[in-house]
Amino acid sequence: MKRWVKMIRFIGGLCLVTLLGIAYVSYLCHNSLCLAPEHSSLSPRYSVSSSSSSSKSEIPSSPASLVKQIGGFPSKVNIESVAFEEAYDMGFDITSRDVIVFLHIQKTGGTTFGRHLVRDLNLENPCNCPRKRKRCDCFRPNTVNEQWLFSRYSTGWKCGLHADWTELTDCVEGALDEYEGTSRKRRYFFITVLRDPIHRYLSEFRHVQRGATWKSARHWCGGQEFTSLPHCYKGSNWTGVELDEFMNCSYNLAHNRQTRMLADLTLAGCYTGYNTTADQLERDRILLQSAKQNLASMAYFGLTEEQATSQYIFERTFHLDFANPFDQANATLSAQAIAELTPAQIERVRQLNSLDNELLEFARQLLHERFKKLKRRDPHFRRNWLRVIHPHKSERTTETH
Question: What does DSSP say about strands 224-225 and 220-221: parallel, antiparallel, or unpaired?
Answer without folding.
Answer: antiparallel
